Amino acid sequence: MADSNIYKGSKAVVTGGTGYFGYKLGCALRDTGAEVVLFDIKELDHLSEGLTCLKGNICNKNDVETALKGAKFVFHSASYGMSGREQLNKDLIEKVNVEGTKNVLEACNTNSVPHLVYTSTYNVVFGHDEIRNGNESLPYLPMDQHTDHYSRTKSIAEQSILKANNTKLRDGNILRTTALRPAGIYGEGEQRHLPRIVSYIKKGLFAFTYGSKNSLVDFVHVDNLVSAHVLAGQALVGNMPKAAGQAYFISDGKPINNFEFFRPLVEGLGYMYPTINLPLSFIYIFAFLTELVHAVVGRYIYNFQPMLTRTEVHKTGVTHFFSINKARTELGYSPVDRDLMGVVKHFREQGHGKKVPKKQSSLKYFIINVLIGFAFAFVLMSWLPKVHT
């Protein structure tokens, strides 16, 4: 953890501060002695002691300038459109991720805020091709190869933030910036991805896996990601800050098959782990059709939650994992070994999960698996060209 003297008595602003990750980061910064302001569009009913919540919109330039007044550190984690139906809201994604980041940079200049840590994503370099043990020397994925607006806009935002490094601020000081690229985030109380996965498990929709069983991806526990951000802020301070102008991949450093990662959650809640594995192409076609349907139905009739989007299929079914050596060496990042048992316990305490006899459960899920397999086969066959005789 960073030296508390770096932050002690300094104002640190966390955009997206009332979100799952932002709030935990705010608490960690408070513990170092910082005066923490959580800036977000929503407020919290219960705020931990020593934190201040400021309601405002990242898309509103005046709100951002007000939030950053007197700040020495800004941790810009506010974003929109990471998963699910949010991924299909192009206009709002653009406003939050691109215009919002522009507002943060302008507010840093106006208020002479010298240190900016940006929460980016693996997707600035990953699209659909395998990446094994990649590092920060990889080029950005070309803009026209992104299949979703979130990844494209996060890439634009990251590049603008790193480009702003070493720019002169209004008071004559220099702006130092860095970007952290986290893997999929998990942890007790996570509200974005895990509840969605648990709902699929309970509804019997987690009835198959897809893609190669040897495919590997990264995950990062929220506490490790928080530690990386605190360390990154520290590494921006001084005459020759190591992190200035740099990007870092952040994960637990333990690549694993996406579905095997969630096995403890499935079985820990009393359900059977699926035995059927479907081709990635089947699932990709299904996701593509879902997006087409959502483009019409979601806008004019009912904004339903897509089971999967094309980007989510690639992120979960295609191998892509990255080295964290640069973060270890330059930031002093050392992830603590974590697993999903704490998450399982959390959901159990929330009343989720069941216990059923294995024979009953096996028969039920075998039938579900067969039906879903036929459904995907039908979708695929409907797209094949007709043969005329």
UniProtKB/TrEMBL annotation:
SUPFAM superfamilies: NAD(P)-binding Rossmann-fold domains (SSF51735)
Source domain of life: Eukaryota
Segments forming domain 3-beta hydroxysteroid dehydrogenase/isomerase: 13-279
Keywords of the record: Membrane, NAD, Oxidoreductase, Transmembrane, Transmembrane helix
Gene Ontology molecular function: oxidoreductase activity, acting on the CH-OH group of donors, NAD or NADP as acceptor
Gene Ontology BP term (one): steroid biosynthetic process
Membrane-crossing residue ranges in chain numbering: 282-302, 363-384
Family affiliation: Belongs to the 3-beta-HSD family.
Protein name as annotated: Short-chain dehydrogenase/reductase family 42E member 1-like
